[in-house]
Design goal:
- The complex is a heterodimer.
- By secondary structure, chain A is mainly alpha-helical.
- Chain A is built from 13 helices and no strands.
- In chain A, helix 1 runs antiparallel to helix 12 (278-306), helix 5 runs antiparallel to helix 10 (222-259) and helix 8 (173-207) packs across helix 10.
- Chain A starts with a helix and ends with a helix.
- Chain B has 21 helices and 10 strands.
- In chain B, strands 6-7-8-3-9-10 form a 6-stranded mixed β-sheet, with helices on both faces.
- In chain B, strand 7, helix 18 (516-533) and strand 8 (536-541) form a beta-alpha-beta unit.
- Classes of the chains: A mainly alpha, B alpha/beta.
- The interface between A and B is large, with 84 and 77 residues.
């Protein structure tokens, strides 16, 4: 079990190094391009060259990366090309916003879609048909359109919720929840539609397993069979669904932050990318990769705990 | 937004690909056209393609022509069918031009993803080894990153360049094709390895190539539809975020312009939202329709609940009317009368697989039910326990247990199941719940059946486990199914079946999955248990050796009917039915062959 964990941690570190280097290489390989983006279109060739030298973009790529990496390990991700603000400081104020959005959505999605998916798998009939219909619809409407629809309905047609803006939890939990209601709902619709259909599939799969039939032949009641054996064995596949869902939410949060003007990491990454603020972009990418890796490791770990084949080794 | 958000089924790759039938494309189109969703989807996609091609001629206005008099013009005024935006540009025209960009992006994404994913999948699946390990690692990593985040990061590299962004997105989604193609190549290669070596003059690669092409076609088409759905969503999303070329009209740009203006002119967001959503929806529905048509394994055959109820009711009416009359001799414990079982086919029809079977088992008798696979013998066994698969329909007949019809009353069936009738399954390893210890699931089952206390159940089970030949029952109770052997697992399952002291055991091929030496031991155990406890048994098997070894009487089943029933000695000495004779002859031949080999 410990070995298993160590193996996955090592793998995660390898992925982190690989992806960060690949991203770094792509963004910093064109040093003059970076400098030109910082200076604007009217800069002269000399100015660009001076900027390249000033930012150290003329050094070999590996040296630049090593510099960045050693900084990153000590918690220094560089400073913004424009404002001079430390990237870590910018992330510090913005990460809570994005995490609030993702974690709240994830919790609600899990509860709602487990209930929906399991019910549909067990009872079939109309509830199953409705779920499948919603799943298609939920997949077809991208999160930004759902968000626009919600703004249209609840902030403009019936001005009930704030259309934009974010209130930190430190200013009051209810205000914080209030400001997140619409954004979370916007993300929730697509993710519930997707996850419920997948949970349904996982439970259906378990229901057709041989051991479920054998347990039923022992005289175990349907409800007991469900809660003790079927759900327990569907948990593994369900966990995979949730970890994939979280990846989807990270992407979705980016759009939602834009629509609702939430000062999160997604919004920061778009601002930085359009402005050519490469260290800042790099910082947001690193945040996303770390988040993805944490999610994957948590999923692996929980999966291992659920699976006796791994757990007791 | 990852691909998986768009309803890609993980099982759609891998083995499902191999079940795909090889159909000529023409009949594919024809069967697609029978699906109304597919027709509507195809029609919408086709419309967008036509508009994309013809927009220079049919768009009412140039895409970027501003008209101050038309600022925020409402729909249907001044020649602006969908109205005009905050700069006075015609929304319909801009959407028409935007479809050009959408179609180009779709082609680009699909081409890049197919070429990259297809070729790497072919190479990895063909050479395997280290190449495959590296490719799969890269593919896993790429799939775990949210594509849109990567696109935004690369914006600083490529700038507002939508074709480049879409080509990169093609790279990002390539792993989904890689996985598909790789698994098909691996499977085809394993299958063809020996045959291919025999074929003179044709290289391995050519054979694999040809077979892969036909095997991979269907799943790739299905996957493409889902990838295109994602591509449309991402493309519009990137433009919506303002990362596209501002001089280029696009669906996402129209949406973002309308959204920025939502307080003044809220209705404008409707058009682009509708156009984008319908395009994604069309690709998803088309993908679903293709999957249903191409991959038979996905076609779920279900009956309308109403029809199922009607069928069940008519069977129950017959029971109440006493059609299946039972005038049993005193010692018959199980009597099946006129049992008919059916399964739904794809078009709300029911195909009967068991056609009115009668069967009698006396107290303490071991009865063999013989037949080839698909003859309906397992269906018969499941129905006596009420554990038929959910889609099965009992079309008629009765199952009398100790003189009472179990099918007439679900409560009676529940009371008998596990308590009066025990079940021994075929494949021991897949019939134990992998998440619970042997002790936990045995105790759970016994307590459900008898209501014994936990410690009583445990004591009883420990004694019984020792009886079925387990050396250290205490230790075994703490083990998980994956830690024990198949033979042990079968003993555990037999123990579970007899623990509640039933009157009848239904065993479905109890020795088929076991080693030859273990087979004899398990049969001996079943015989002893039957003798000790006066247990009646129904043993389903395709092996006449098992019948000769253990059974008192035997029924031969063929195509859902019992063709002959007799006591074992008579049946072996003088088989009446021609099918029984064939069965006997062929099993003797197998025995002879085995004797020669050994």
């Amino acid at each position: 079990m410990l070995l298993y964990l160590v193996k996955h941690l090592l793998r995660a570190v390898a992925v982190l190094l690989l992806v960060s280097f690949a991203t770094f290489a792509m963004m910093f390989s064109n040093g003059t391009g970076v400098a030109r983006a910082v200076l604007g279109l009217n800069a002269s060739e000399e100015q660009v060259q001076a900027k390249v030298a000033e930012l150290g973009l003329d050094r070999p790529l590996v040296v630049q990366y090593w510099d960045w990496l050693t900084g990153a390990v000590t918690g220094d991700l560089g400073v913004s090309f424009f404002t001079g603000q430390a990237v870590t400081d910018a992330l510090e104020t913005r990460v809570p916003v994005t995490l609030s959005l993702i974690i709240l959505t994830l919790l609600l999605t899990t509860v709602i879609s487990v209930v929906l998916g399991v019910t549909a798998a067990l009872y079939g009939g109309w509830i199953d048909r409705v779920l499948q219909f919603i799943a298609v619809l939920g997949a077809a409407i991208p999160p930004y359109i759902v968000a626009i629809g919600l703004v249209f309905a609840f902030a403009i047609a019936v001005p009930f919720y704030p259309a934009t803006g974010y209130i930190p939890a430190t200013d009051g939990v209810s205000a914080w929840l209030w400001s997140l209601t619409l954004p979370v709902t916007a993300l929730l619709i697509g993710s519930v539609a997707n996850a419920a259909a997948q949970f349904r599939g996982a439970v259906m799969d378990t229901l057709t397993q041989d051991y479920v039939r054998t347990l039923r032949s022992r005289g175990i009641r349907q409800s007991e069979l469900l809660f003790r054996h079927v759900l327990r064995n569907s948990a593994g596949p369900g966990l995979v669904v949730l970890s994939l869902l979280t990846l989807g939410l990270i992407g979705g949060a980016l759009f939602i932050e834009t629509v609702f003007a939430l000062p999160g990491v997604g919004q920061l990454s778009i601002l930085a990318a359009t402005g050519g603020d490469v260290p800042m972009v790099m910082g947001t990418v690193i945040f996303v990769i770390v988040l993805v890796l944490i999610v994957n490791i948590l999923a692996e770990l929980l999966g291992a705990l659920l699976n006796p084949k791994v757990r007791i080794r | 937004m990852s691909i998986d958000q768009h309803g890609l089924d993980p099982s759609a790759d891998g083995t499902a690909a191999l079940v795909a039938e090889d159909r000529p494309p023409r009949s594919l189109l024809r069967s697609l056209l029978r699906n109304p969703f597919a027709i509507a989807s195809l029609a919408y996609i086709l419309l967008i393609v036509v508009v994309a091609i013809l927009c220079p001629w049919i768009a009412p206005f140039p895409p970027n022509k501003t008209d101050l008099s038309a600022v925020n013009a409402p729909p249907f005024t001044g020649g602006h069918l969908f109205g005009a935006d905050a700069s006075g540009r015609d929304i319909l025209s801009r959407l028409m031009w935007g479809s050009q960009q959408t179609i180009i992006a779709c082609v680009l994404v699909l081409t890049v993803a197919l070429i990259l994913g297809g070729i790497s999948g072919l190479i990895a699946g063909y050479y395997r080894g280290r190449t495959e390990a590296v490719a799969s690692f890269v593919s896993d990593v790429a799939q775990s990153l949210p594509g849109i985040v990567m696109l935004i990061a690369l914006y600083s590299l490529i700038g507002p360049n939508i074709p480049a962004a879409m080509a990169i997105f093609g790279v990002i989604v390539a792993p989904s094709f890689y996985r598909l193609v790789r698994s098909v190549v691996v499977a085809v290669r394993n299958e063809l390895y020996i045959d291919a070596a025999k074929v003179v003059g044709l290289s391995d690669a050519r054979i694999v190539g040809r077979h892969v092409l036909s095997a991979v076609r269907a799943p790739v088409i299905v996957q493409s539809a889902f990838v295109l759905a994602t591509a449309v969503a991402i493309l519009a999303g990137v433009d919506f975020l303002g990362l596209g070329d501002p001089s280029q009209p696009s669906w996402g740009r129209v949406l973002s312009d309308a959204f920025n203006n939502i307080y003044t002119n809220p209705a404008n967001v409707i058009w682009p939202s509708l156009v984008i959503t319908l395009m994604i929806l069309s690709f998803i529905l088309l993908g679903n329709a293709l999957r249903d048509t191409l991959q038979a394994s996905f076609r779920s055959a279900t009956l309308r609940p109403g029809r199922r109820r009607t069928l069940a009711r008519s069977a129950q009416d017959e029971r109440v009317a006493g059609v299946n009359d039972l005038t049993p001799p005193q010692d018959v414990i199980l009597a099946i009368r006129g049992l008919k079982i059916g399964y739904p086919t794809s078009n709300d029809e029911v195909r009967e697989v068991v056609h009115g079977v009668d069967l009698d088992v006396r107290k303490g008798e071991i009865h063999g039910l013989v037949g080839e696979s698909g003859s309906g013998k397992s269906q018969l066994a499941f129905s006596t326990l009420g554990i038929l698969p959910r889609e099965a329909v009992i079309l008629g007949g009765s199952i009398f247990f100790e003189g009472k019809d179990l099918l007439a009353d679900p409560a009676r069936m529940r009371a008998a199941r596990g308590r009066k009738i025990g079940y021994v399954p075929q494949e021991p390893m897949s019939n134990l719940d992998p998440s619970f210890t042997i002790g936990a699931q045995l105790t759970h089952g016994l307590r459900a059946a008898t209501g014994l206390s936990k410690s009583d159940a445990r004591t009883k089970l420990l004694a019984l486990l020792a009886r079925v030949g387990i050396a250290d029952p205490e230790r075994l109770m703490r083990l998980y199914p994956h830690e024990i052997s198949g033979g042990m697992a079968q003993r555990v399952l037999i123990c579970g079946a007899v623990a509640a002291d039933p009157e009848l055991i239904v065993a479905d091929e109890p020795t088929t999955a076991l080693d030859v030496t273990v087979q004899a031991e398990v049969l001996e155990l079943l015989r002893e248990l039957s003798r000790e406890r006066g247990l009646a048994m129904v043993i389903v098997t395709h092996n006449l050796g098992v019948v000769a070894d253990i059974c008192d009487t035997v029924s031969v089943m063929k195509d859902g009917r019992i063709v002959e029933r007799n006591d074992v000695d008579t049946l072996f000495a003088a088989p009446a039915d021609p099918y029984t004779r064939d069965l006997l002859v062929s099993s003797r031949q197998v025995e002879l062959m085995e004797a020669e080999d050994g």
